Amino acid sequence: MTTSFMNTLVFFLVALAAVVSAVPVLFLRDVFVPPVTYPHAGTVWKIGQRHNVTWDTAGAPVNITNKIGRIVLAKGGIEDIDNPIASNFSILLGRIEVTVPNVTPDSDYAVVLFGDSGNFSPTFTIEN
Ligand SMILES: *[C@@H]1O[C@H](CO)[C@@H](O)[C@H](O)[C@H]1NC(C)=O
Ligand SMILES: *[C@@H]1O[C@H](CO)[C@@H](O)[C@H](O)[C@H]1NC(C)=O
Ligand SMILES: *[C@@H]1O[C@H](CO)[C@@H](O)[C@H](O)[C@H]1NC(C)=O
């Protein structure tokens, strides 16, 4: 091998190492938006009952940007941000017990699980 080729190769390897070491910085903190598995379509909750909201934690990245979860109720797609039914729990738990709040009975409710961003459950019913 010629000196010039060696120099080029060394330069290339140094440049490659720089790129490779820069990549993990970009991907160190991962957005994790687990899908809600309960309540599902067809679920009926009664006001005042306690239920476990559950979600799938499979595929959770090692470094999650925001591990602290929050669950709000949504009606007709409108989230009731001000009155979370659960908050300050680890998103890695996979379930959290909630009490069904005293809301207008209807069939267009969903729970929204927040970690990094919000994930809606399917629409379900809340009864009196
Ligand atoms: C997770 O974060 C820690 C500390 O910030 C870091 O040492 C580790 O390499 C990261 N792991 C991954 C897989 O990003
Ligand atoms: C929620 O899940 C926990 C753990 O599995 C269980 O102990 C608890 O009874 C459940 N709550 C309800 C309301 O089903
Ligand atoms: C959230 O939970 C942590 C650990 O259980 C606790 O130390 C902290 O005070 C809680 N924060 C709020 C706002 O409830």
Characteristics:
alpha+beta, 128 residues, three-stranded antiparallel beta sheet, Immunoglobulin-like, 20% helix, seven-stranded mixed beta sheet, binds 2-acetamido-2-deoxy-beta-D-glucopyranose
Structure description:
This protein has 128 residues and is of the alpha+beta class. It has one domain (36-127): Immunoglobulin-like. The chain is 20% helix and 38% strand. It has one helix at residues 3-27, and strands spanning 36-38, 44-46, 50-55, 68-75, 78-79, 86-90, 95-99, 106-114, 118-120, 124-127. The strands form two sheets. Strands 2, 4, 5, 6, 8, 9 and 10 form a seven-stranded mixed sheet that branches. Strands 1-3-7 form a three-stranded antiparallel sheet, with no helix packed on it. The protein binds 2-acetamido-2-deoxy-beta-D-glucopyranose (3 copies).
Largest sheet: 7 strands, mixed
Shape: rod-shaped
How far apart are the termini? 82 Å
Bound molecules: 2-acetamido-2-deoxy-beta-D-glucopyranose
Strand content: 35-45%
Cα Rg: 23 Å
Task: Determine the structural class based on helices, strands and strand pairing.
Answer: alpha+beta
**Domain tally:** 1
CATH architecture: Sandwich
Counted by DSSP, the helix tally is 1
Q: What number is the mean pLDDT?
A: 85
Question: Tell me, what is the CATH class?
Answer: Mainly Beta
Question: Helix and strand succession?
Answer: HEEEEEEEEEE
Pick out the low-confidence regions: 23-27
Q: Tell me the CATH topology.
A: Immunoglobulin-like
Instruction: Please tally the β strands and state the result.
Output: 10
Percentage of helical residues?
A: 10-25%
Signal peptide: 1-22
Keywords: Signal
